[in-house]
Amino acid sequence: xxxxxxxxxxxxxxxxxxxxxxxxxxxxxxxxxxxxxxxxxxxxxxxxxxxxxxxxxxxxxxxxxxxxxxxxxxxxxxxxxxxxxxxxxxxxxxxxxxxxxxxxxxxxxxxxxxxxxxxxxxxxxxxxxxxxxxxxxxxxxxxxxxxxxxxxxxxxxxxxxxxxxxxxxxxxxxxxxxxxxxxxxxxxxxxxxxxxxxxxxxxxxxxxxxxxxxxxxxxxxxxxxxxxxxxxxxxxxxxxxxxxxxxxxxxxxxxxxxxxxxxxxxxxxxxxxxxxxx
Length: 278
Hints:
The protein is α/β, with parallel strands linked by helices. It has 2 domains: 8-159, Conserved hypothetical protein from pyrococcus furiosus pfu- 392566-001, ParB domain; 163-277, Arc Repressor Mutant, subunit A, CATH 1.10.10. It has 12 helices and 7 strands. Strands 1-5-3-4-2 form a 5-stranded mixed β-sheet. Helix 4 (122-136) crosses helix 6 (151-159). The longest helix has 15 residues, at 103-117.
């Protein structure tokens, strides 16, 4: 098994800590191509503009890390924000360290650099973890050692990928945290997960409040009676989605029935009453 690589930039820059330091070259940003394995997908304009302003005033202080390609250009391993900002600032040269790395190593190195800087949002980290598992046939324990995170943390990130697409998008945008995602994963009804996520965002719920909500609203998977009318089941699901809490629709053969709506606090009751009355 490979040694752990979770050592920050020292894992990426050969020669640091002992022996001769690796030479830093000045490379034209136009001669550098982005890393197709880059785990980060979202580059926020406001923070990138701040970096551009800083680079115009002080230059690029920390070098990017690149590998030389067969065509004579360079491929980024780490430092895409700095490279993007340098191009936007109109620089003709950017400090770079050239590292010998096989294409198969680039994803792993790019991931480690971003993880050590905590640059990835939870969804990007989860997707990168999954790609490492798929491409390098790693176990959760192997992955934990590579990125310097405990196994439980790695597993929690990977579980994010099981959430509905809408929730994953809100995580990517920063509307929901990894803590919120863990709370939502306690609920096994996807429509209720989405409804709860909307409420967390709308009401600005903390992780602790989201955990309490998920505990109360958790739906346990169980076989439904075979004779149950699918239209009734569909109506019940719509009520759950609309009200954001557990709802049971009991329809009797004589066309009578009742609707049971659960609430867990006076504040919850007030919220439900406001929805029903309005």
